[in-house]
């Protein structure tokens, strides 16, 4: 599928307006279905969304990004918080949020426990237990569930 041609087709069918820029796949996108770049007008889309959720959900994501695109070039509020964006998104039946993808790996939380007061801390990133201490009693922290590398 030629992505730019597909986006042009969706733009004409659902908005009645032409899409005059480029659309491209961006496999580095993780938590989002697409991105609009006001600086040069191009759109990036997450190929995993299309592969896992199918064409119907992908079309709704294209509509979402086209809402940003068309509102920006009309000089109206194109950001998520703007009333014009919310109204247009509802009119064209676009997705507000991308459903969770199974291929996006959830990083396990690291659990640190204070040796003195037994306070627990959950973190996504490792912390230096030689440098940092418990915030309550200043006791030494130990990692309870080391990651399996």
TrEMBL record:
Per its UniProt entry, which superkingdom is the organism in? Answer: Bacteria
Residue numbers binding Zn(2+)? 64, 68
Required co-factor?
A: Zn(2+)
Task: Name where it's found.
Answer: Cytoplasm
Report the active site residues.
65
Which family does the record assign?
Belongs to the SprT family.
Q: What is this protein called?
A: Protein SprT-like
Originating organism: Streptococcus wuxiensis
């Amino acid at each position: 599928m030629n992505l730019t041609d597909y986006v042009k087709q969706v733009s004409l069918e659902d908005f009645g307006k032409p899409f005059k820029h480029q659309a491209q796949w961006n496999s580095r996108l993780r938590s989002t279905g697409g991105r609009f770049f006001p600086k040069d007008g191009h759109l990036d889309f997450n190929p995993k969304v299309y592969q896992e959720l199918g064409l119907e959900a992908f079309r709704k994501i294209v509509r979402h990004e086209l809402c940003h695109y068309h509102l920006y070039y009309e000089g109206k509020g194109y950001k998520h918080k703007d009333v014009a964006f919310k109204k247009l998104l509802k009119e064209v039946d676009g997705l507000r949020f991308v459903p969770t993808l199974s291929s996006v790996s959830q990083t396990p939380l690291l659990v640190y426990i204070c040796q003195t007061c037994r306070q627990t801390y959950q973190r996504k990133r490792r912390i230096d237990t030689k440098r940092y201490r418990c915030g309550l009693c200043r006791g030494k922290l130990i990692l309870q569930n080391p990651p399996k590398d």
